[in-house]
């Protein structure tokens, strides 16, 4: 059913029951009646009753297979913002779970100095709510999908603003969550308003290409289907075309024409299992030639948004070029619904939350970055970078795959691996060659970070080259800590009972808390060990940590730490 078709609450319940048998029909009907009553005097820009919008959003949510609470929240999601209803009213009439989801998608009402500040605060609020409950963003995506499908009734400037935000934020969030269908719908429908002329031209050219190549594409599919049947491999196969916005991006990015686009058409083949994917690949390669350097195995190395499939571009009947996309049934479901699969089948399990947090780590790092910068534009730019759907895949020396935003640097990689690795970076090797730590990463490279015992001294210009929120946040914190600070020398005087093993423990303590030893002297006098250590550091908290650690040794009788900058 289209987002613009007329639907009723019966349609919502019907699809909800089909996708999730445990939904509570009575509670959904109650939420509908409540929303209908609250919105009864309101109309959409089209002149239709306002309740049509929550109904469509609830239908989209139900199609995702989500639970009763989310469907109810979808029906109620605008009552707090657009009527006199309060959070407490929803909580009392329904429950706190539904009320919190509604609250999470409700925009902030306070005034801001600039549009950017308002937008930044709204995203921050939404993502914080999302961290608590992923259903907030799933509902927000459904809300945006219906709104972007009914923009024709708004003024042109509003159409463009909503379409731009959809392309820049909501579609990339859907991508990050592995929700391919949602992402494509959002992009294509927003593109129609952002670039109407280009959209029309691509549509017309695409229809022409489909007409020209249909019989050769069908013959290619038929030949492959026949060979797979002979090999007793059961599949579902379809011919698909690249989505409009994706075509536009490819044409712009590579400065090519549609005649030069090699993956305009796709033969999608869905098998029973992973093993059959590779068998299918072998059969295709026996029948048709592959174009060199087009093979991609996202089954062996899944994309960061959980997408798995084998891709290769082949030359089919009469030279028609088509991309073969091979995946199993389960892989196909995950690529369509993404993170919602984890929610539907793993609700309440810690593994679900961990998976979600892993996929959205960059967004949460961006929220923490906002605490360190008052510039809303910097926050929004970093958020765009974290959400942007282009990624770079690199390997650690152990062979683990790490995925970062496109144009990330060695510094981003170091902080991505671990905060301490970033803080103590001294150098880097890419494919065994030394490179600057500001070098941009490229797909397939092996990246090795070289660290030192001491924390590195950050440079402000690093903020201009790093892409990820985590790297920016950590560098800003280090810059703030080191601002105007020179290294201070300290003399540490320790009196302890004579004990050789204690001496070893003390000498090992300093490097373990990242303190640089300049001198170390010890003498034994009347059964006591008198130890004198000269160290240097920029951070007073390191001295406090040292004092605390030395206090744990029972054999130590006295500790005195004093500044010693006059020492050479």
Key terms:
4 domains; 17% strand; Hypothetical protein af1432; single chain; four-stranded antiparallel beta sheet; alpha+beta; six-stranded mixed beta sheet
Describe this structure in words.
With 568 residues, the chain is α+β, with helices and mostly antiparallel strands. It has four domains: 9-153, Hypothetical protein af1432 (Orthogonal Bundle); 197-337, Beta Polymerase, domain 2 (2-Layer Sandwich); 358-482, Roll (Ubiquitin-like (UB roll)), CATH 3.10.20.30; 488-563, Alpha-Beta Plaits. Helices cover 52% and strands 17% of the residues.
Given this structure, which CATH class of the largest domain is correct? Mainly Alpha
The share of residues in extended strands comes to 15-25%
Radius of gyration: 30 Å
Number of individual domains? 4
Query: How many strands in all?
Result: 15
Give the quaternary arrangement of the chains: single chain
Fraction of residues in helices? 40-55%
Q: How would you briefly describe this protein structure?
A:
With 568 residues, this protein is of the alpha+beta class. It folds into 4 domains: 9-153, Hypothetical protein af1432 (Orthogonal Bundle); 197-337, Beta Polymerase, domain 2 (2-Layer Sandwich); 358-482, Beta-grasp domain (Ubiquitin-like (UB roll), Roll), CATH 3.10.20.30; 488-563, ACT domain (Alpha-Beta Plaits).
């Amino acid at each position: 059913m289209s987002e613009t078709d007329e639907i009723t609450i019966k349609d919502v319940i019907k699809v909800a029951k089909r996708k999730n048998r445990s939904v509570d029909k009575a509670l959904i009907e109650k939420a509908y009646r409540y929303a209908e009553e609250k919105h009864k005097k309101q109309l959409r820009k089209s002149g239709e009753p306002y309740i049509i919008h929550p109904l469509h959003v609830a239908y989209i949510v139900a199609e995702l297979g989500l639970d009763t609470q989310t469907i109810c929240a979808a029906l109620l999601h605008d009552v707090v913002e657009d009527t006199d209803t309060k959070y407490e009213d929803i909580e009392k009439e329904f429950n706190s779970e539904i009320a919190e989801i509604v609250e999470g998608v409700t925009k902030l009402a306070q005034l801001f100095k600039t549009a950017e500040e308002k937008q930044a605060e709204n995203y921050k609020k939404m993502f914080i709510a999302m961290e608590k409950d992923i259903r907030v963003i799933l509902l927000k995506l459904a809300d945006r999908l219906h709104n972007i499908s009914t923009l024709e009734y708004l003024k042109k400037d509003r159409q463009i603003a909503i379409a731009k935000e959809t392309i820049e934020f909501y579609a990339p969030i859907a991508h990050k969550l592995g929700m391919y269908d949602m992402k494509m719908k959002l992009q294509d429908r927003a593109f129609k308003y952002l670039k109407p002329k280009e959209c029309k031209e691509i549509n017309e050219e695409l229809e022409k290409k489909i007409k020209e190549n249909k019989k050769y594409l069908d013959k290619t599919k038929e030949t492959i289907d026949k060979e797979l049947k002979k090999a007793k491999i059961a599949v579902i196969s379809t011919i698909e075309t690249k989505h409009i916005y994706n075509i536009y991006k490819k044409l712009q990015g590579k400065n090519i024409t549609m005649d030069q686009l090699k993956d305009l058409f796709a033969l999608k083949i869905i098998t029973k299992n992973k093993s059959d994917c590779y068998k299918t690949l072998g059969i295709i390669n026996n029948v048709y030639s592959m174009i060199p350097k087009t093979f991609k195995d996202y089954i062996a190395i899944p994309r960061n948004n959980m997408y798995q499939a084998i891709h290769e571009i082949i030359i089919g009947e009469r030279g028609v070029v088509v991309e073969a996309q091979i995946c199993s049934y389960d892989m196909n479901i995950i690529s369509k619904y993404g993170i919602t699969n984890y929610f539907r089948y793993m609700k309440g399990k810690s593994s679900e939350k961990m998976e979600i947090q892993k996929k959205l780590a960059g967004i949460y790092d961006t929220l923490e970055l906002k605490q360190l910068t008052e510039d809303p534009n910097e926050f929004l730019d970093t958020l765009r970078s974290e959400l942007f759907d282009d990624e770079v895949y690199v390997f650690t020396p152990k062979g683990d795959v790490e995925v970062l935003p496109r144009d990330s640097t060695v510094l981003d990689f170091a902080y991505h691996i671990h905060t301490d690795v970033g803080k103590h970076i001294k150098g880097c090797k890419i494919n065994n060659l030394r490179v600057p730590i500001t070098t941009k990463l490229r797909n397939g490279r092996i990246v090795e970070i070289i660290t030192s015992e001491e924390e590195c001294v950050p440079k402000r210009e690093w903020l201009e080259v790093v892409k990820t929120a985590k790297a920016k946040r950590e560098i800003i914190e280090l810059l703030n800590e080191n601002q105007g600070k020179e290294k201070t020398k300290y003399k540490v005087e320790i009196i302890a009972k004579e004990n050789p093993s204690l001496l070893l423990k003390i000498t090992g303590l300093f490097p373990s808390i990242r303190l640089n030893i300049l001198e170390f002297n010890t003498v034994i006098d009347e059964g006591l060990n008198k130890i004198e250590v000269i160290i240097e550091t920029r951070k007073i908290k390191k001295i406090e940590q040292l004092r605390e650690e030395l206090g744990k040794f029972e054999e130590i009788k006295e500790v005195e730490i004093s500044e010693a900058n006059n020492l050479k």
